[in-house]
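Dissemination and training. As part of the outreach component of the grant, students in the summer workshop were shown how a complex can be specified as a set of sequence lines and then modelled as a single object. The example used during the hands-on session is reproduced here so that future cohorts can follow it. Participants entered these lines:
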Amino acid sequence: SAQDIADGVRAHELDREHVFHSWQAQGPFTPMTILKAEGSYVWDGEGNKLLDLSSQLVNTNIGHQHPKVVAAIQEQAGKLCTIAPQHVNDARSEAARLIAELTPGDLNHVFFTNGGADAVEHAIRMARLHTGKHKVLAAYRSYHGGTQLAVNVTGDPRRFANDHSDSGVVHFMPAYGYRSYFASTTEAEETERALRHLEDMIVLEGASNIGALILESIPGTAGIYMPPAGYMAGVRELTRKYGIVFIADEVMAGFGRSGKWFSINHWDITPDLITFAKGVNSGYVPLGGVAISDAIFETFRDRAYPGGLTYSGHPLACAAAVATIEAMKEEGMVENSARLGEDIIGPALRAMAAKHPSVGDVRGAGCFWAVELVKNRETREPLAPYGGSSPEMNQVVGALKAEGILPFANFNRIHVVPALNISDEDLLTGLAALDKALDVADGFVEA
Ligand code: PLP
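and obtained this result:
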């Protein structure tokens, strides 16, 4: 309505005066106002309806305003909004039970945080105390969060301004077939060489110093590059061999995103710790956490865990998690995510790759896909440089927005990351818009 739009204009003015935004130069930034959101749609400040193919920051896995989850939050708010973390709370107990049941192997204990970054901080703290070893291995081309240690394990340019030399973090080259660091020409070669590199890193850095290895089960913001067959099993083997805690970061890849409850399930591996957030309750109330193995739990059976948060296991957040997981089960959303990837997104993106010379690579699973755009298929020169945008990419994104799509873009990539319960029809509409926007990208391909 006109009133909503007027309210949105006022909110925008106040935002520019008083709100300090994440990752932005505050001056030239012109954020989009969202007046409302429902299912896979959002309405912008002018009242335009946009199809959300980004799931915001790849977190609204069940779409916006799912009625079962909204009702559960309202019910919990009527009963008990908050309680200190040392007490027992029914929503928290049930959320922990459900998560323990869904995670693989013996990850039977859950420490709740407020989001992904603090989950990563605590996972590393647990690993260091469990092993008595300080160093952390992490991959380049990764994202693990914005707090001090989480951004230091991160392998993306957001780390650069936050690097500090005593973080104890050492980065290794990931297995990334499309831009192989190991000159691999086959998947098997990439697995073998990336694992050899990782083992060399462990030996050269000193296994006796390395307490943790953190790796996204499928790297998300860094490009949804699927680990080649055998790689994750190899990482599990190496971490076991050298007494290193293996932390699988499932903050973005978890809760059905790639067509399994956890992406690590694609490889039948049990890490020692899993970090989660985002999809656990679709972000309706801030929540994250660490799923902990029996062995690491034992370290803290008789020894106090030196860490905690006022809002650990917040009742509103946990009630939202319980309702989200139940809705996902009742409505078969994880199965649907797998089906959408196999039957619709994968085939559509492969057809686009065949048709558009600007598409260098498409890859993904479930509702977790990346389209990597290049100026030249032979040299694989990206359409925007690592760590930056480009006028060309901005035009592609602009073309998507003009088609009524809210996209997720990062450097030279467009990610197709819709809600797991998006309708087939809406998904096809979104993919058709992408197909059209790629014509714009094709215009930048070198002759
Ligand atoms: N880990 C991964 C893999 C992520 O994708 C993110 C956020 O995008 C984080 C950690 C940080 O989570 P948060 O932003 O909730 O702190």
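Residues 378 and 433 are 26 Å apart (CA to CA). Students were then asked to discuss how this feature might be tested experimentally.
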